[in-house]
């Protein structure tokens, strides 16, 4: 795996960049906006409530109340950035909530004794919210002559078996979102990079450090993840990368580990699914041109 360090010098290019951060009022999001502002970026942050008093004191920060599960709220967030700064350079899709549904032993019954549909709130926030944030990010960033990037908070739970099923599904989906968008953006030559962070246990509102300490479970500071997100924005060579962060150690795992492992599986004569899609798209495009 490709372990690497993140130096302060590698982040200086974020000065004067316009960055949107969802879930900005606590944990990883708050640490990220604080880091970006210290680097001289302009940040538009969204959440259901403002950051704690005194946590952010910069004229280059704007808070916009938004629920990422609502399309119109997200649209308003991006339009606010355009209104203030005329462009969007980078987006950090970070907003998320902890597990809620129990598909095994927590099934509720209605008055007729029939099972009720489980809540989809975690999927609405963590996955649909990420999809819609990224979709709007592509729409607005591609209008920049120099392009920009989207970073998705995927979580290390998107790489493993995880018994909190709704949360695990949302993060596996977020990994699929990052990978699929990278393939689509590359195929269509769109000047938007997409990458992801996959942090292990990190002290946030969802992961309460004091509780985890009681069980002897290490939680890394949210600033460690903020540096990874900033690095993915600043380093223009990073495309389709997934940075795993554990004990403040950074490793790129998709290009270095996951994809090479998968590539050992197919038969030597198998055409990959993505290449197959590309061939079919080219054929359909050619046929349409003849009509």
Automatic annotation (TrEMBL):
Domain of life: Eukaryota
InterPro entries given in the database record: NAD(P)-bd_dom_sf, Sc_DH/Rdtase_CS, SDR_fam
Pfam families: adh_short (PF00106)
Molecular function as annotated in GO: oxidoreductase activity
Gene3D superfamilies the record matches: NAD(P)-binding Rossmann-like Domain (3.40.50.720)
Keyword Repeat annotated: no
Keywords: NADP, Oxidoreductase
Entry annotated with the keyword Oxidoreductase: yes
Family: Belongs to the short-chain dehydrogenases/reductases (SDR) family.
Annotated PANTHER family: 3-OXOACYL-(ACYL-CARRIER-PROTEIN) REDUCTASE (AFU_ORTHOLOGUE AFUA_6G11210), NAD(P)-BINDING PROTEIN
Name this polypeptide is given: Uncharacterized protein
Biological source species: Xylaria grammica
């Amino acid at each position: 795996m490709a372990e690497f360090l993140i130096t302060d010098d590698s982040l200086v290019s974020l000065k004067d960049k316009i960055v949107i951060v969802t879930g900005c009022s606590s944990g990883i999001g708050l640490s990220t906006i604080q880091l970006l502002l210290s680097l001289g970026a302009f940040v538009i942050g969204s959440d259901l409530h403002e950051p704690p008093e005194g946590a952010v004191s910069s004229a280059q920060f704007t808070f916009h109340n938004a629920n990422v599960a609502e399309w119109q709220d997200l649209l308003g967030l991006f339009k606010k950035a355009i209104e203030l700064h005329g462009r969007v350079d980078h987006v950090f899709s970070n907003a998320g909530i902890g597990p809620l549904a129990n598909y095994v032993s927590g099934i509720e019954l209605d008055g007729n004794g029939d099972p009720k549909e489980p809540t989809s709130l975690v999927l609405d926030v963590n996955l649909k919210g990420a999809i819609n944030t990224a979709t709007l990010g592509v729409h607005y960033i591609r209008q920049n002559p120099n392009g920009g990037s989207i970073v998705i908070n995927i979580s290390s739970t998107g790489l493993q078996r995880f018994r909190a099923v709704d949360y695990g599904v949302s993060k596996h989906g977020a990994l699929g979102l990052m990978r699929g968008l990278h393939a689509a953006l590359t195929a269509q030559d769109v000047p938007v990079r997409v990458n992801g962070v996959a942090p292990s246990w990190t002290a946030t509102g969802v992961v309460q450090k004091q509780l985890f300490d009681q069980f002897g479970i290490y939680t890394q500071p949210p600033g460690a993840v903020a540096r990874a997100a900033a690095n993915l924005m600043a380093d223009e060579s990073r495309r389709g990368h997934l940075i795993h962060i554990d004990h403040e150690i950074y490793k790129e795992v998709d290009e270095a580990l996951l994809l090479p492992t998968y590539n050992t599986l197919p038969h030597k004569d198998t055409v990959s699914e993505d290449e197959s899609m590309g061939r079919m798209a080219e054929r359909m495009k050619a046929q349409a041109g003849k009509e």
